[in-house]
Amino acid sequence: MPSFGLLKEEELEGLVSYVIHLSIRGQLEFQVMKEILMDDSELAEPDGVSKRMDEYMDVSNENSVPGSWKAAQQQDHVIMPETQYPSKEERKASVLRGFEKFRQQTGAGCIKCHTDYGRQSLLFYDDWGTIGRPADLTTGVYRGGRRPIDLYWRIHSGINGSNMPNFSGQLSSKDIWDMVNFLQVLPYPGMREEYGVQID
């Protein structure tokens, strides 16, 4: 994925707008195809697909495809860090809490899917029938970005279409930030040793 830093602001905005258009279209087509394959009798009626498309495209409905995109732009959907750890001791305590939370079989149960922290994760089929596997979190390579806010968002909201669920209802914001702090230490043996994280 190259950098597009040389493009003008309006050209970047145009690209972003088009990618959003493609995403909405893809979500919509996938949803309709899924219902057709599930043999939805309402879709077989005259004008059934047309009526369903109107429902899916209703921007005022947060459960519709474009409605969910519009709702995501609202200020109350913006994730802001709530917990800062100014001292090394506070950060270490946060990392260790995240480590314990990650390894628990109850609650989030991250270790169940990210077996051996992702080094031995099993293959699965995603919603599109593609074979995937949970990320190997010891490599520090994350498809959704590696900034703390990117990691927070993945844990908080999950990854649509994959087997990564959202944990916003199960984990507090503080718990998620603790796990983010742990994930930032996990790929680096020197940092693991410094923070007292033993994974081998």
Give a description of the structure.
This protein is mostly helical and 200 residues long. It folds into 2 domains: 9-77; 88-195, Cytochrome Bc1 Complex, Chain D, domain 2 (Orthogonal Bundle), CATH 1.10.760. Helix content is 50%, strand content 2%. It is built from 9 helices and 2 strands; from the N terminus they run ααααααββααα. A two-stranded antiparallel ribbon has the order 1-2. Helix 5 packs across helix 8 and helix 7 (148-157) crosses helix 8 (173-185). It is globular. The two termini are 34 Å apart.
Largest sheet: 2 strands, antiparallel
Helix-strand category: mainly alpha
Rounded to an integer, what's the Rg over CA atoms? Answer: 20 Å
Q: Classify the fold: give the CATH topology of the largest domain.
A: Cytochrome Bc1 Complex, Chain D, domain 2
Tally the helices.
9
User: Roughly how much helix do the residues carry, as a percent range?
Assistant: 40-55%
Distance between the termini: 34 Å
CATH architecture of the largest domain: Orthogonal Bundle
Low-confidence runs of at least 5 consecutive residues? none
Q: Can you give the mean pLDDT? A: 85
Domain count, please report it.
2
Write down the CATH class of the largest domain: Mainly Alpha
Order of helices and strands: HHHHHHEEHHH
Strand order of the largest sheet: 1-2
| Total count of strands | 2
Q: What form results from the Cα inertia axes?
A: globular
Could you tell me the strand content as a percent range? Answer: under 5%
Oligomer: single chain
